[in-house]
UniProtKB/TrEMBL annotation:
It comes from the Bacteria. Pfam families: Form_Nir_trans. Keywords: Membrane, Transmembrane, Transmembrane helix. It is a multi-pass membrane protein. Residues 1-41 have a biased composition (Basic and acidic residues). The lineage of its organism: Bacteria, Pseudomonadati, Pseudomonadota, Gammaproteobacteria, Lysobacterales. The chain crosses the membrane at residues 62-82, 94-115, 146-166, 194-213, 220-240, 260-282. Its main location: membrane. The keyword Membrane applies. This is Formate/nitrite transporter family protein. Coiled coil: none annotated.
């Protein structure tokens, strides 16, 4: 080494000898770098692909499998109304009773999601991503088939639950009045409010579906917080709301026409707009934008 080379080597600053990784932060071992990567939240594309593959699986299921699972989900969602009604009945005039009774609302969602039952509003997100990724008529036909079977199965389950709870004489008059009151409260919305509140409910359910794969051990927390917000906001959900309003119908407090026109159609459209047309479309566009 000549004198000039020796002088350059000795005059070099510590930064000149650092790797790019070390300049950006602390020097880590290979194992520590692996730990850092493990703790990173999944990329949006990973979440998108996880949910898309779930959607592909659902689209490929047989009609009987979808139907029975949807029926079970409709029945399970009845427990959201029942839990809230029972809490309302026993809390009475306790200060902050509404905040406490609304904690009953997530119960049906917990059962449905953890048991992997078919819920229509989940499928406004899950089953739509395969169509957005590879749009064609076959995928559209499969989506409409799934939606139809699941929606009908959910409604039958919801109606059976509401009718059974009313006629099996399980609860006292105070509980009956609490359950009727929930349905009356829902029907107090105008059709436009049913639609707009349905958009927010659909959006929140789609958000929950997007978050659950990344939540891991916090899945229950994500489900409870998301659906609790729906209850607090009085947002309209087509399946839970169907249990609530059909209980009122079977009690003689409203007609089937009122249920279908005043509540059912506006809420259904709102849930689809919020889940599919807003959240699913934006999430898909986000991932496509990252790939561009």
């Amino acid at each position: 080494m000549n004198d000039d080379q020796h002088r350059l080597a000795t005059d070099a600053t510590p930064d000149d000898h650092q790797t790019a990784d070390e300049k950006d932060g602390f020097s880590l071992s290979t194992e520590e770098k692996h730990d850092v990567e493990e703790k990173q939240p999944p990329r949006a594309a990973v979440l998108h692909e996880t949910i898309r593959l779930q959607g592909e699986e659902e689209l490929g299921r047989s009609i009987p499998a979808l139907g029975w699972s949807a029926l079970a989900a409709g029945l399970s969602m009845g427990f959201s109304m029942l839990a809230r009604g029972l809490l309302h009945r026993w809390l009475g005039e306790v200060p902050g009773a509404f905040l406490i009774e609304s904690l009953g609302y997530p119960f049906g969602f917990l059962v449905v999601i953890l048991a992997r039952q078919q819920l229509f509003t989940e499928n406004t997100m899950t089953a739509v991503l395969p169509l957005m990724t590879h749009p064609d008529l076959a995928k559209l036909g499969s989506l409409l088939r799934l939606w139809s079977v699941v929606f009908v199965g959910n409604l039958i389950g919801a109606a059976l639950f509401a009718y059974g709870i009313l006629h099996m004489q399980l609860f006292d008059q105070a509980t009956h009045e609490a359950l009727v009151g929930i349905g009356t409260e829902v029907m107090g919305n105008s059709p436009w409010q049913m639609f707009t509140k349905g958009i927010l409910a659909g959006w929140l359910i789609a958000t929950m579906v997007w978050l659950v794969p990344a939540a891991e051990q916090a899945r229950i927390t994500v489900i409870v917080l998301t659906t609790y917000l729906i209850a607090l906001g009085g947002f309209t959900h087509i399946i839970v709301g169907s249990v609530e309003v059909l209980y009122l119908v079977f009690s003689g407090g409203a007609g089937l026409g009122d249920y279908a026109a005043h509540f059912g159609l506006p809420t259904l459209l709102g849930n689809i707009v919020g889940g599919s047309c807003i959240f699913a479309l934006i999430s898909h566009a986000q991932v496509r934008g990252d790939e561009a």
